[in-house]
User: Fold these one by one.
Assistant:
Number 1:
Amino acid sequence: MSLPSSTLSSTITLSTKTFSNSNFISAGHPQSSAPVTTCSSITSSNSSSSTKKYTSERIKLLLKQQTSTYTVIKNEKTNSSLCWKVFGFPAKKSDATGEYEKIEGFTSCQTCNQTFAYTPSSGTRNMLAHQCVKNLTNNNNKRTTSSSSSTQPKLNSMMNIFKKVKLNEKEINTVKDLACSWICRDMRSFKIIEDNGLKQLLQEFVILGSKYGEFDVANALRGADAISDHIYNLANEYRSILKDILQEPLESGCICVSPDLWSDDHKKIPYLGITATFVTKHFEYKIVDLCCKPFLGDDHSGKSLLIAIQKALEPFGIYDLSKLSFMSDRGANLIKALEDYETLFCFPHRINNVLKRAFFQLPVHRIKTNPPATTQPSASTTSVNNLNDSHESASEDEEILQPTKRIRKKKQTKKQSSSTDVNDPMKLDLKDLPVVAREIIETIKQCKKLVRYIKKNGLNKTIQENGGVALQQSTVVRWLSLINLLESLVTSYEQTKRILNNRRQQAKLNKIDEYTLKQLICLLKPFKHVLQLVQKGDSPSLYMVLPMTLTLKKALSSFDELLKYQTTTTKTTDDKENSSEQGSDEESELLVESEGFKILRLRVLELFNLMFELDLRHYTATLLHPCYRQLRGCSNSERDEVHLYVREEMKRILYHSNQQQQDVSPEIKKRKVQISFLQEYEDDNDLNSSSINDKSSGSEDYSYIPLQADELTRYLSMELDKSKLSSNPLEFWKDYQGAFPILSVLARQIHCIPASSAAVERCFSSSGFIVNERRACLSPDQLDNIIVIRSVKNLQK
């Protein structure tokens, strides 16, 4: 048979090197029975030395057409590369000896006979890119996954238990020297050494070292571009994971979404952040950051924002926004975007706005236009008139919004009298306030100036050396910081006074009266406790809004109630920050309410009643907490309306689901002992008695008994041991979901809604930490990827 001729680009000499018959495989053909002898020398005198010319294509053709003469023999050298399990060397059967002689300069696939030019210095890149090698790699991965799932993994890999070793002093010092060199040369934080991610990376290198011995870490580490590209792939995988996780809560209506807008401090790029809180089918409360994407809308109108929200949720399988609940601040664009959906507004934001308006901390002149974004202000901002700080508040205070599901109110009784003659507290100017009240406002301004002076001159360290605590600065957008400022100043009042006297700056303290500071702290203390409790994001919080609202109104109703509240919380709460409260019982008894303080207290109460109104879902969340199901402090008409709303919701759930009631014996858990100022609104121990005496709310004995004992009736009348109830209501509903199959679904839908939008603000805080000065050029899409990966990792803890 004649062979096809072709132009040869290179000439290869056919060597006389021969191989043993046991070291070759004929690809896809029966093994030849021709004898093969091993020769140690390439120039063996017994082998034929005829020279022929070959090309890759010609060898491939010969292997396919002349199977009795040409074959592929294995590479008998030890090689770690996977490609040598598929590739070998082409060889020709010698006519004289009947032995197979290797054709130098080529390598051929044993499966399809594909041939490449090859020398030891050329590498295996072409072979690794060959499809047969890729197929073998995929098959190995599948077998590895299958075997790992079917066999029991090692205990140390499951529990991350590794051998403990004791390094000698020289080895420890070497590690410390390298760590210090890295931190100093690359300007890294000392804390990076304690980073869990770094420990996991180094532990993986130790495992690889135990497998391969000493090797160049450059073989394992990849460059910045490779890692950046891999983050895109990993983020997409994690979005798919989140899509699967959110599928069941979405269908059950147990997801609440908190959207907001933010811009970074460096390039001022606007971002849309979305955080989801949801309750799983196992009644677990979860929080996840879905995105922090660059906002690409034509403008910041409500319509553009809604389109952006819809597009951002699509990768997670969320296309129907009517299945979601929304938690939002009162930014004008967010209100417009979510007007057709069930939205609750952030409780802490409203408290913050009430206090800012009550103490005249808003800019006097504002342009009445829609803000470009409800941005997250910088934590270092202290100016009252800073426009970035006022965007959110200005948009929130222009209009008094009614709740989405408003509860009907009784006819208003005689309006509470006030020391001021102003009819509309929303329009009252500071100049119209009585002088005694303006002096208290001026005290707050002087406190801020003093703290700025202390920090600017580095005097906090001196105050601490003299037994005081560091004075804390405040920002107008977060009133917790103002309360902390006042408390730190009272605690270190004597030390600060002594230091200012030594520097001849005592005039800075002359306008700050310690007695006035204590009264301000007394007024703001209830708000501090409420804000701290309601912004905890690891468990349901919506049920706290109703009792907290009643608590604030009661505390502000009179100075005696305010002192009573402070005395009670001092005894029952674990407030580690309040070293100034030692002996506060005696101090409270000596305090007498001044006229200016009374004006401000009543102003705060009036604004709180005017600017915040409870939603039916606030009442429902409280009712669906087993500790507060009697709705103490509410009137009978309010209870009746809440019960009616719950029954309507149960009908809706029953319409969409054909669940059957199952009697399941609940698992009794020991309740953690925790005393709170909310204890006043907990149910009585004697649950057989439904009489509630609450003169302040005008409520009467509740004796509503429907004709049919439905789930709500049985829930309200069941006897529970309060000492075994948890503060997390989902634990109760997990245990009793068999007894209350419909009500437990409603509990999931209600308790997935947080009381605040603090979660999305924490997302922005993380984003601001990522896009710092050194990483100001980070791609906005990459920031979104990092947030998603970080969020899923936290979710999987």
Note: The longest strand covers residues 270-279.
Number 2:
Amino acid sequence: MKKFAKNLKFLMLIFWLVLFVPNICQSESLNYPSILLEASIRPEKNLVEGRAEIKIPPDQDISLNLSGLKIKRFIIDGKRLTPSEKFTNISSSDSPRHLKIKFSARFTSLPNIISERAVVLTGNWFPAVDGLAYYDLKVSLPKGFVAIAPGDEIKIKSGRKNTYHFIFRYPQERPPLIAGPYFVYQEQSKNLTLAVYLFEENNSLARAYLDKIKETINEYETLIGPYPYRRFAVVENVFQTGYAFPSFTLIGSRLLPLPFIRETSLPHEILHNWFGCGVYVNWPKGNWSEGLVTYLADHRLAEKKGEGALYRHRLLVNYQSYVTPEKDFPLQMFVGRKDRASQAIGYGKGALFFHMLRQKLGDKAFFAGLKRFYRGNLFKYASWEDIKEAFEKETNSQLKSFFNEWLERTGLPKLNLVKERIIPLKNGEYLVALRITQEKPYYQLTVPIEVVSQKEKKFIKANISGPQTRLDLKIKGKPVEAILDQDYDLARRLTEPEYPPVLARLFGKKGFIVAPNQMVLHRYKLLISFLEKRGYILSSNFVSPDEVAENIVYLETLPEKFRGLFPQTRGSFCLLTSENPENPSQIIAFARTTSILEIKKVLPKLEHLGRYQGICSNNGVVIDKIEPGFKKGIKVKLDFDIKGLALKDLNSIESIARAVSLKKVIFLGERHDRYEQHLAQLEIIKWLHEQGRPIAIGLEMFQRPFQQVLDDYIAGRISEEEFLKKSEYFKRWRFNWKLYKPIIDYARENKIPLVALNAPKEITDKVAREGLKALSPEEKARIPEINRENLAYREFLRFVFEQHENSGKIKNFETFYEAQLVWDETMAQSIVNYLEKHPDKQMVVLVGSGHVIYGYGIPSRIARRGLKDYTIILLGPEETLNPAMADYVLFPEPKEAPFEAKLGVLIEEKTNGLLIKKVFPGTPAEKAGLKEGDIIIKADKQDIKELADLKAVLAGKKPDDDVLVAVLRKGKVVNIKVGPFKMENKKTKKKGHAK
């Protein structure tokens, strides 16, 4: 039994090792060169001397970096050669190759320095191969120097000099060497050696750093997997650096005592031993490690403090401040930090990428995928593609489009949230209709939105992929506000209220420096030089914010009107920023100082203080940091919102036509009876045609069965009279033909195709009376599939219906609603059909505004059919303006409609003619003697059987014309001359038809 228990314990130990210990054997089996290096350091001469033996596996080319080195002997496979000065390529062979190199070098400046004060060799300090190799490193130094390099085990041989042997069993890139008069503090934690290498003046920091190392390694082992090495050390550097290497980090001596270095920077550097110094970066394919480590270290720390959203917001502020179009590049092209812009991309955008991936997959899958990536790539080069493959395998999902969008594109998505309508429902509920808009290029995003009412909060996530996405949400209590992405879970452009005027915006953009006089320039010359290096120009004249579109820095004196923008401050130097009220995309800054010395002391700190709206200092010590205020998320008021516009910004119709000229579909939403709106439509059509745009004109007022009539008229095969008769215009459309005539005439003159969009009136009338259920199978086959998903549109139509309920013939809202849907779906299908058959064409659609306002009716239905490249222009909308209504609105000056001859009677269609039910006083009918009860049977000798026949006769009449009307009166035919009509056309306000 005891033997069985021992065997069981042994098996469990083996199982634990296989499962949790990094796969070192696998790494060692990989075909890497091995390098034995023996070197001697002579600090008093800034000299390193040594020899390197390099064994190259069969069938492997290598490149040797010899830059900065003096090569004394170079032997390959027993033959002495002379290598090139910097790089030497060694070609492969069927059998292993053997190099012996003797070298020396003197180093006096970074990245390699050898001095009596310290040895810092982080560059090319010995003959190293490009890529990974196994290194066996032995280094001799004078007594008093303590050395460290990557190693799981360090053996020290004492003698006249101390010789350090660094044993590192894993492939690595060229190892650094650091040495100095260190005091070494170390302890064991489980199977790890934890160490701190400090100069004497910082000895007191040892305990705190050892504790933090232990805490951090334990945390990341739980999160990711076992620490890959057997040692970790914090090493003090005489230079102010923050470097991570396998098994140690190198931190500047002035930085080490700062609490934030230990609490924030150290975890970042330790984590690099998993990612960057454990799983290596495949540099030609982009540096993923900085973004990942920033997310798992710096962001994670903020998250634990409850400040994750604030941290992400700061990343977005930095990106927007420093990354200008000329400095932008795709995330996958990031290699290392060169400036603030590259840092904002590689570290900031990179961290946000991993946050969005975590949001997309969920915590469990995200961290499982991370562990898989770590296990599968330890001690190997890895790329973004390897990260994608690990997460795809772990989650059994496709992530190609997500990775491509975020890695290959520059910039960030630009979103907005717009209120469409708030519609009261029953039982204290409201329907909130919102729209998310997105500028090109479009991203596939999951957008978090919170809707707040007086009684509750509701949280939703919306999947978007195009220019706009609609949302309908029911909520109890009166809606108050909606907030998009208030926790900054998306990498996106910040809107104005979210983008505070911080110092980073001053440092990241160009501008002007304004001084009150030449006398102050000496005091500010260091600050002026600092800003000039960032693109600022010192102006000899006063610059006002309304004159330029750049930042302005005022030295010493502020213009009177801006003094209220800045707080009262204390300190020998202050630099403050504020939003420019006349150009909110830019900022105004104010600087004052008592001496040039004060600026000199604080200047090195300035760029590290970019998150603040201002700072003040005394004797180089920052005494005030002004935190910026901003609105969290993209907010839209739902209860009471007031908007306005600057009249100076009103655009001409030509500029609007130009702005929409490339859209596939251009909706021109009209009130059918407004002549000035039709003239405005004509102006847009003319502009597009004259610019060579290949347009067709889609018409709501003509129905699909009459398409051939429109084709014949445009081709000149039939006259206007025949066109109106064959298209049954007067039977099927009740509005004055002359309102549309200028547009139709222009199309005919220029051979612009006209497209009949609408469903047959017989079908829509039947649906309006009895509903879709009343249609026969043959009639149903003539209409498209009906979509009822848009609740906001339904409630909008209910409002329209209730406004006209008493005056309309249709008394049932459901049938009215279904008829509207038939109109919308049919016209949408007609548009899509035409453009699929004519892919080179664009279409200008003339339609009642109710069919397009808020994108509800036809636009949403062509989008559902895959046609999303459209724009909406509303003409003379009478509702309160709302950004969601349309893309543009036009307000043409009122224009009297063309003359339309009318008798002045109320009629009813009968089988034998038109029965006059009422004669209106003062009209041509009354003056001519027409009477109630008369039945009109002829007009100008043409038979009149329905109202459309009479309208066709009257359509050509002018104000001074008359018409000969034959009526049946008491069984006899009476001929009556009616006219002239000039007194009939009184200026009365008409109700429009915006279905």
Note: Residues 316 and 494 are 7 Å apart (CA to CA).
